[in-house]
# Entry
Amino acid sequence: MTSTRPFGPRYAFVVVGVVFVALLVSAGLRSAPSVMMLPLEDAFGWRRDTVSFAAAVGIFLYGLAGPFAASMMERFGLRRVLVGAILLMSASTASSLFMSQPWHLVATWGVMSGVGTGAVATVLGATVVNRWFKTNRGLMMGLMSASGATGMLVFLPFFAMLAESGGWRPVVITVCIATLALVPLVCLLVPERPASIGLRRYGATEDEPAAAPVTGNFVANTLRTLRDAAKTRVFWFLFATFFICGFTTNGLVGTHLIAFCGDMGIPAVQAAGFLAVMGIFDLIGTTASGWLTDRFDPRKLLGIYYAIRGLSLIYLPYSGFSVGALTVFAVLYGLDWIATVPPTLRLANESFGDRRGPLVFGWIVAGHQVGAASAAYFGGFMRELQGSYASAFAIAGLTAILAAALALLIEPSRSAGGEGRLQPA
# Structure
């Protein structure tokens, strides 16, 4: 049975809008530990490596949950999985209001929020783009990816003000309310597929065959896809570069930049302002990256993005942390914070096809989050060991330069049917 919706064939943009907001709130939740680090230290006496460990667990599970979430969306339905994940996100933050021990922080902001946000993440954007768009995919994925930076832009300065005036609890309450508000939006405005409301994918000129229903154990399907993808060179190159991507973005900068600025005498609200500047320029850079990905070689784009990121990170510890120096860093780094996502997804789709591409991309994103989790803990460890974050940021910059070189070695396979011809490793 079909139903009518406003905007006709352009209803795909309504779906993108709702999912953009969901990704934005999810990004706000994931960014909250960076402004809670110092208040938690003051409230409970927990060291930074303790808080960093909880953040690392959350980041790791966020990535690990991604491919299983993508498989569950195919097996049980996108809307059901999305609503369930949002409710889990809200429950995890609400439960943390009662925490008193470090393991409570790990259980709520680590395990529960990691699993919940893993389903409201990049793999969700990839699934929606592939289901609802035949053309303009790079641009749409750029917009979806930019939601992470926009979430940081919208929430972090506000979170920093809340934390500065009232501690960590007002931040938790705000996140809980924001996540709950997503549920009616998703239930009312996000159909399962275009065909569910009698539409075609945006840009499609003729009816397409209905996707065959996915049956069987979703865990087995997810692991089977990983097994098949792992036999190819392109998967491991994409996995390695995205591992470094996570290591050099939300794992290190997203978790520790505010604390690094605090060590240099910069108040949390001002430091969060620089992250907001990054968010503005990432919204520009990632959207532009999607447009460029529709037109140019994605491997060369990745090489440029990683090189700029690496140089930015190497520059930061020696910048002097003046307002001008931090503004330069925020602009250069912000322009490609998540700009790597559209070209990486295009390479995955070209090699593994529209149906399996998002699921394989989920495993690639898992590599991203393993890298991010490593950096989240590594940054806190280096800070406790050396009393400074300088070495951690310089090392991260060097790994980004390595990723730039690896990106140029990627050779995606293509087939006439667009389902990807897997090249053995």
Observations:
- The chain has a mean pLDDT of 84.
- The CA atoms of residues 200 and 206 lie 8 Å apart.
